[in-house]
Amino acid sequence: MMGRRKVKNRLVPVVxxxxxxxxxxxxxxxxxxRMMTTSKSVLAGILSSYPDRFDPAGTERSRHxxxxxxxxLWRLVPDTSVTKEEIQVIYNLTDEEMALISTENGFRFKCWxxxxxxxxxxxxxxHYIVYQLKxxxxxxxxxxxxxxx
Length: 149
Description:
alpha+beta, 3-stranded antiparallel sheet, 7 strands, Arc Repressor Mutant, subunit A
């Protein structure tokens, strides 16, 4: 079981606490930064190094005085259980994609797996498996494009 992988960076729980204290699922990078005492590069490294916990949720335009800029939004992946049906809906997976990660006992992609925990599967485990699946499918798509040229 992959579930609740141990985090190596002591700041990961601090970033998670920023989300829980704000009571919001999605926060802009600069707001997370304001609530922490770390550098931009350290925070960016944490957010991008733990794709099972933090998910880029897009960008938004914002203003500071007369300047307009784009803010990166980040989502904290909930540490909850999900059913097979919820997984397909949440991650917008086709039946073919579901077949690529489904096993008799749960979900698996390459060396990553999620075992059933009570009523469902841990959302963070599933999120990481889907993240790896989509990354792999994108690589395959790009390599096919390159070979055609």
